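User: Show me sequence and structure for the first protein, then do the same for the second.

Assistant: Starting with the first protein.
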Amino acid sequence: MNKKIRSVFLWPLLLGAATAVNAQKNMQASLWLTKADRSVLFEKQKDVLSFKPTGNNNFTINVDDKQTYQPIDGFGFALTGGSAMHIIRMSANNRAALLKELFATNGNNIGVSYIRLSIGASDLNEKVFSYDDMPAGQTDPTLKHFDLGPDRRDVIPVMKQILAINPAIKILGSPWSPPAWMKTNEDTRGGRLKPEYYTTYAKYLVKYIQGMKAQGIPIDAITIQNEPLHPGNNPSLLLPAPDEALFIKSNLGPAFKATGIKTKIILYDHNADRPDYPIFILNDPAARKYVDGSGFHLYGGDIEALTDVHNAHPDKNIYFTEQMVVEPENSATIDIISPVKRLIIGATRNWSRNVLEWNLAADPDYKPYTDRGGCPSCQGAVTIDKDAIKRNIAYYSIAHASKFVRPGSVRIASNNSDKLPNVAFKTPDGKKVLIVANTSDSAQSFNIKYQGKALSTTLDKGSVGTYIW
């Protein structure tokens, strides 16, 4: 082959190789930043960071997308009845703008991708209710009076607007209490589920899922009971592990199967200090066959307990279903590193497929909440005062993950550090996302290394950065 002909064949190959080398040479990352002094609150930085050979001796976070862990379902909040009440009372234009900011992904919108609803009232409703309340002394074992009524005023219309923005959003439902007539103390607070109403209560949960589906609201998963070992809220229920296991294997699981319901069953839904609770149920073959995974809060225990449950039953999923995240009003600083380290990084590094914070919205007085056990200090991710909006620490901590780590992402390997805790993901479109918190008492300069090249960057003390490339 003469030189001229050979060059015709080789030139495209050489050009492709040069392009690949150039792309690797010019690989760049963007940074979204929050600073502790509030001078920057989840803002994209103008400087573009480039990966290149580096010779400095700074600490290096090595990101390896060849090592993969759990898939990610999303990040978000609880849309309590109180949250929905405040949102639905906003003017139409301002409500639409807020929901777009929360649930869309373009521009500066934060792309919340997971929502938790209460099945009936939670302790952040104006009043306690179930979907089948009866006068004292009366019962309704056939559920003839079942109705989603109270949710039709706020939760359902707000969810319909959310689904119009993001039809694929994951929705988790959690009950705080069965109807009082099903309980041993016949009260909304505390008590236990009467054994004679196990079958009826399973049908009640089926009717909830079917009723929401009829409204165009698909319930992806439910937990059996919010905080089953804390009967002090109003509403609440004491549901020890043996009771929950029996209810799942003898009633709820068979009821879902009989009615063709595909909604996932997530057990426990309480603090990380009792990993024995979900493990006890998952050790029961008759119960575990109906169970998708276990849900956790972090008001007690250590986040590493989620890995203990994963290791005991690695074929079952882990979820992080609630944590209240609050800050002092009008504080000059924002402790953004705390929820990001404990929840966004901590839960996902311990196998959780999601992170949910508590709750989406409240008013300036943290209302509404129920009497006899409601939460008077539960700050919303946003504070709503008529049409005025104030964004709080929960908003910013979730935003650092929700906007970029979209559903279908997978956690990938990165080496952790006491001063720079971090977690890395690969998104469905192939992007890499690294979330880093500087928990030290000084600015930290460090490298992010990927595929043999590194970028050099610095985070001020107390800052959180999300790096995307």
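Switching to the second protein now.
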Amino acid sequence: MNDTFYNAVDGVSLSLRKNEILAIVGESGCGKSTLATSIMGLFDQRTTRIQGEILYQQKNLAALTEEQLNEVRGLEISMIFQDPLSALNPLMRVGDQIEEGLIYHTDLSKEERKQRVLTLLQQVGIQDPKHVARQFPHQLSGGMRQRIMIAIAICCKPKIIIADEPTTALDVTIQAQILDLLVELQKETGAGIILITHDLGVVAEVADRVVVMYAGEIVEEAPIKELFLHPQHPYTRSLFHSIPQMNKKSDRLNVIEGIVPSLIHLPRSGCRFADRIPWIPQEAHEENPQLHEISPGHFVRCTCWKSFYFNTRKGERYV
């Protein structure tokens, strides 16, 4: 049996404030969802290990037993999963699934729980809560299922909500409705929300602060306006540069050169983005890249951002 472990999330340190939406951005495989499941304790202990601390109200979640975590999950910290069809139980009516958290965490009577379920369904924008509560997940649309997931997440009024790609696979109109709903609920409850996404449009719409991840590390962190106006890390700038611009006529999309390294081949020293910007001199990178605060609340990893420029060859942009 191979007992070798590779750090999927490496040296990540972040904080979440009350009444704040913190967006975590990065491409697939950068460690966003691993970070979320680690916070919730939803990982296979046979294949995953956590080193470090996950602090919540003077408790280290990483050190809690499964029974102790169950007292926190759903009540104080909850999660909205990116695929509600696989997250919901196909054999249970959705009303019963929402009620489960109330049974576990509250002493409400059966009648009070049923009324709370209907109130929650109305709160997440479902027009006929009595009818929908009796339906099974497969009978609902993708947008409706995601609303059910949100109702489950907020049933006990948690202080922290982790939303992992909550608008994936939804059409643009439904995406906007779900985002508006999250913002509205956040304002009502004062909960802190960790929004995990790869969609910069979603980030611009709702986030207060942004953390950009690449290859398991935080490479940039800043308030939303600062990041969009003054992105600094080469990876962040490349992400913005790869977004199609309606005001520019071009038959080519700007792409980021190279590929994300696998966990096995991930460099554990030096700048992890260096291979994708080979025209930047090696001496521009730190041997042990650190996060540097370049302006209030704006952190950038490595010093290579000072030397970065977009490479142009034969009139074509490669980054």
